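Entry 14. Structure prediction run on the chain below.
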Amino acid sequence: MKQERSSKSLREEKEREKVRTIQENAYKKYVEKVTPTHSLGKNMSKAFLVGGIICCIGQFILNQVMLLGIDKETAGSWTSLILVFFSVLLTGFNLYPRIAKFGGAGALVPITGFANSVAAPAIEFQKEGQVFGIGTRIFSIAGPVILYGIFCSWVLGLFYWFFGML
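Output returned:
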């Protein structure tokens, strides 16, 4: 009788294991079906193209500003300012997210991507008001980047100062 129970529980355990395996395989197939596939080469090409176009536009602006007789350093500041302005403008018209979706990191890495990351939350939360909407959300994406950059520069400055004293 005891042996009969153990063989019955063994069969039940095997049946549960079969059901579990079938469920896991079905889930794996489902995940494979709904998971989007990406071509690394295609994505890299798009990022290179979009980033290159942004850089070419920046170089064009720099050259035009220098033609006005402004020195290179000041012209670089004006170029950055103009690129940020156009990025925020395109974000406001909901065009920059489309560019970023197509170009990926090529659109997100330059200064224009940083401007987009500051402007997008401000535009999204403007309905909540100036203070509680825009004021509290404007740096939700860019804030950690700014904080990390300032902290790292502070730490590296300490290293530079300490090893400069040796």
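The chain has a mean pLDDT of 84.
Filed with the rest of this week's runs.
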